[in-house]
């Protein structure tokens, strides 16, 4: 996938979908059945999926922190 298309494809993935794809790539790379070119492509896709998962986790963490950090105990506030 090219850079822009790859980013668009990732943006639509949930954390669970991205993690599942990442796990499949890891299994494929560990099996060692890919050509070098295929392995490089899988590695690049895996790195992009990892970044996507990290972003999703950071967003979830920010929401949890917003709940925890209320002025008078627990409160909800929008996180941007």
TrEMBL record:
Coiled coil: none annotated. It is found in: Cytoplasm. Keywords: Cytoplasm, Exonuclease, Hydrolase, Nuclease. It catalyses: Exonucleolytic cleavage in either 5'- to 3'- or 3'- to 5'-direction to yield nucleoside 5'-phosphates. InterPro entries: Exonuc_VII_S (IPR003761), Exonuc_VII_ssu_sf (IPR037004). One of its GO terms (molecular function) is exodeoxyribonuclease VII activity. Pfam families: Exonuc_VII_S (PF02609). Its EC number is 3.1.11.6. The keyword Signal does not apply. Bidirectionally degrades single-stranded DNA into large acid-insoluble oligonucleotides, which are then degraded further into small acid-soluble oligonucleotides. Heterooligomer composed of large and small subunits. Belongs to the XseB family. This is Exodeoxyribonuclease 7 small subunit. It comes from Sabulicella glaciei. The lineage of its organism: Bacteria, Pseudomonadati, Pseudomonadota, Alphaproteobacteria, Acetobacterales. The gene is xseB.
